Amino acid sequence: MPRYTAPVRDTRFIIEKVIGLDRYAELPAFATASPEIVNAVLDEGGKFVAEQLFPLNQSGDQQGCKRNDDGSVTTPEGFKEAYKAFVEGGWMTLGAPEEFGGQNMPHIVSTAFEEYLISANMAFAMYPGLTKGAVAALLAHGSQELKEKYLPKMVSGEWTGTMNLTEPQCGTDLGLIKTKAEPQADGSYEITGTKIFISAGEHDMADNIIHLVLAKTPGAPDSSKGISLFVVPKFLVNDDGSIGERNGVSCGSIEHKMGIHGNATCVLNYDGAKGWLVGEEMKGLAAMFVMMNAARLGVGLQGLGIAEVAFQNAVQYANDRRQGRALTGPKDPEEKADTLFVHPDVRRMLMESKAQIEGLRALCLWGGLQVDLSHDAGDEEARELADDLVGLLTPVIKGYGTDLGYKVATDCQQVYGGHGYIAEWGMEQYVRDARIAMIYEGTNGVQAMDLVGRKLARKGGRAVQAFFKQVAGEIAEAKKDEKLAEFAGKLEKALGDMQASTMWLAANGMKNPNDAGAAAYPFMEMTGVVAIGLMWLRMATAAQGSLGEDGADTKFLETKLVTARYYADRILPRTASLRAQVEAGSDSIMALEPEAFEAA
Amino acid sequence: MPRYTAPVRDTRFIIEKVIGLDRYAELPAFATASPEIVNAVLDEGGKFVAEQLFPLNQSGDQQGCKRNDDGSVTTPEGFKEAYKAFVEGGWMTLGAPEEFGGQNMPHIVSTAFEEYLISANMAFAMYPGLTKGAVAALLAHGSQELKEKYLPKMVSGEWTGTMNLTEPQCGTDLGLIKTKAEPQADGSYEITGTKIFISAGEHDMADNIIHLVLAKTPGAPDSSKGISLFVVPKFLVNDDGSIGERNGVSCGSIEHKMGIHGNATCVLNYDGAKGWLVGEEMKGLAAMFVMMNAARLGVGLQGLGIAEVAFQNAVQYANDRRQGRALTGPKDPEEKADTLFVHPDVRRMLMESKAQIEGLRALCLWGGLQVDLSHDAGDEEARELADDLVGLLTPVIKGYGTDLGYKVATDCQQVYGGHGYIAEWGMEQYVRDARIAMIYEGTNGVQAMDLVGRKLARKGGRAVQAFFKQVAGEIAEAKKDEKLAEFAGKLEKALGDMQASTMWLAANGMKNPNDAGAAAYPFMEMTGVVAIGLMWLRMATAAQGSLGEDGADTKFLETKLVTARYYADRILPRTASLRAQVEAGSDSIMALEPEAFEAA
């Protein structure tokens, strides 16, 4: 019953009119991304996921993954065939380097496609998503030998990848890892230990699974400084590239969880499995962070992707379902009731969702662009700026973006009334699926701490100052245009709240680290409000600028302007109370002892 | 693995110190509620639900209800036996009138107990909860004959009750009801139609189920003005009170839903079932509203109950789980890591939950008190004031209270990190269960419209003015006490936002009803923030006043004061941005046509 259409028109508007991809055409990273190719990727990719993957989303949730007695895992009906089509269509290779069989497309383009992929089927999207992260880690830190051995088949998607960090006793605090890696005479290691919550850890869709595993070598410090990263294939790979014998890693069980049932979340038991060091010994955390940062942007996209598909369905329901009358008098007097769409509170939920989704989409695409520019911008200064922005925005896109995903999914479920709670309508699945994105790849609280504890302070606050400069500059420019001045004024106020909060953090966070910790979450949210506010300023500017053009989609552009006004009226003012929360400090948060929280 | 202890200490503090139940001892409604009896109810009731019902909560979710081929429904293992114990313990009869076998306890006491019942097992609590609503409707509108026939066994709990409003084509808009009631020669009616989403609609726990059903008599207007209310027993009841033949109502299917799996949500088919009119013909909606208003307060309690049990578990996990180090240096250097409890962002979630839960508990109990006073206060003026406050607060307790329940459950799940997403830990169930409370008994958007569209304007705004007067009076009093002045000042600011928003609504809502509709939700939230703020002012005042007393629980009282400070620092300031949302009007919300929401 649910539906999905890739929002290609909006993606194109952002890429072409807001970001103006053609401005970067001369950079090597964008050589493959001509407008024709980008449009083909969006159109065909959108069609592929809507036709092949979306129909498996609900059945995948209902069936879930099944661990068989021999430890193998069967994915839901149709997943295996759809994955084959996905690989054959080359969709896995979009952003990967040509050297290993990739299409070398810039991040901004693969980001656009991945949003669609997630909307269509988040549980499915995680299989290639984790592979992509593993590829990134091997690319950045693997030896040439390891790269040549594993990357071609991972880039093509014939083999999938995983990230193995968590153990029963350790999640966020990776220093507590117990998995051991014993060096062998042949240069390999024997890996022994138990990993939990391993997404896509075992399944029947690919010929091999390449696990990237954090473990400790003998004598390594018992802290995060003693961690090394290993590649551990499910099947050993012979020198000729063919599949060899089964390695000592097996799926002990799969978790029963709230959502993403189509993805196998495994307990993996390593029992003297053969592994090879990736990068340097005891530098595993840094290597894993490459993977995690890519993954965090990908998880932020999950917030966006789920929000979009939930929204599309809520819109349809609001137009189909008739209940009650418009407050201003019957809209459709010939019918027994008007559509839900006439009710201001239903419209509030739809407008809120629309404004957050389109703003978040622009932010994710802009984030993708910064990743590209951080590698390939023309000069060092521009590369540094882009790298600073990626660092600053990653925890915001992940943390704030996934909070929005859950909020939008919940609101869109609310539009359905009682039917929203019933499985067959599909909306409750979106809420359950969206929920995990706030938790994994570092909880959103961890993202907030990353933002406030690391990213703000890095290099003397260079990143946040650059961000402020950019926002303030664009506000000043917009204020000259009477059609944008009101929006710019409201964004300026929000920016002022964020700047004041940053000052407050600078003044208090060092003296009392708990003040920084207590302020982190509202600060992250405020940064999200301002960053998406900047996106809306840009979208409004672009829409205003395009209105007179030949062949302009006037209705679409006017809709952008209305939605920007909604953002300015109803969302930007939220920074005021977030600032009050930041400035409240940590006293009342940290005052109580554990006993004070007991019921009796 | 989850745990639950009834928070009797906090309930007693509110009843004894904040509300001061002894002040009402002379009123007939409170004759049965001596401190000894109230404490016995809380202690024994808390123990009963924790020991008998809580252990069935998780298994009930996992097993769910099953419809058998003959249309009967089997509840999860243990439910039937537990329900028998519940009835035998007399827990059903607490608030019911003595005339029909009840204990005549005031609402405030049954409210306190029902919170515990919900915390222990929300799906179970719905069976007696719906019975209670059906009892209320029969008491208010049933003939003496109907009362005598049905009430004794419903009050005891031997028979359960249901509310039958929704049909496939009609939820909020009851005017669309199609179910027909044909009058018969013997004074009964034949009821024919399909009802959906009927909670506790069919099950194996009671000898009979008494359905209260909305239907239309021949020739009745095809609108909400044509609706009548009927009582339709599952089994006809003979004149001697014994169970007679099966009536023509059957369960067609049970819904697969997001949560509350232990409660059977049924499609009920009425096929010429025998029913009897409750109250007057075509006055069914008014009669049903008695039931719905009671039910709405009960649903608000579901927000509280789920929040409390989720919170207790998050506290335990935060104390048990070790991960990372305190920002201010290791707290437990002898351990490999500190507990989650040391992290300010974890503490933020716990403090936020604590402040909202305890405030909401006070509000629910105060609401229960107002229900009592609306019937039994000494003079007409006091009864009217209480009735006004019940009217004003009911949509807030339901709408804002259940939003808080979902938010707290989500935050407490978040404390668990990855384990929060795994079914066996129990936290994800709380989120799924909490979600329905925002939807049923009128969605929270409907509550907001009820508040703004009906309750604000009623009798020239008398209720909200009385509320303002009460809050302002207590602020003025508190400002004289230097220990309370800061809190009072912040509450005053929040009250000012609410007053300004009310003025804005008065000035704009009549001219443009869509402005009222667009403002309704943030206005409801703001009212919730202020109402719970008033509760915290009272709790802080009571705590301050009790600190010096003999035998005072000093730690508990000091904890109250810290939590009040948290509320003032971090929650009260939220009214500023809610006010901005109210005052933004409806222009940007209502400007777009349906087409503007389409993806392509």
UniProtKB/TrEMBL annotation, chains A, B:
Enzyme class per UniProt: oxidoreductase
Reactions catalysed, semicolon-separated, are: 3-(methylsulfanyl)propanoyl-CoA + oxidized [electron-transfer flavoprotein] + H(+) = 3-(methylsulfanyl)acryloyl-CoA + reduced [electron-transfer flavoprotein]
Read off the InterPro entries from this record. Answer: Acyl-CoA_dh-like_C_dom, Acyl-CoA_Oxase/DH_mid-dom, Acyl-CoA_Oxase/DH_mid-dom_sf, AcylCo_DH-like_C, AcylCo_DH/oxidase_C, AcylCoA_DH/ox_N, AcylCoA_DH/ox_N_sf, AcylCoA_DH/oxidase_NM_dom_sf
Domain Acyl-CoA dehydrogenase/oxidase C-terminal residues, every copy: 283-451
The lineage's top-level taxon is: Bacteria
Q: Which UniProt keywords apply?
A: FAD, Flavoprotein, Oxidoreductase
Under Enzyme Commission nomenclature, its number is 1.3.99.41
A Pfam cross-reference name: Acyl-CoA_dh_C
- Entry keyword annotation includes Oxidoreductase: yes
Domain Acetyl-CoA dehydrogenase-like C-terminal, residue spans: 468-592
Question: What family is this?
Answer: Belongs to the acyl-CoA dehydrogenase family.
Q: What is this protein called?
A: 3-methylmercaptopropionyl-CoA dehydrogenase
Origin species: Stakelama tenebrarum
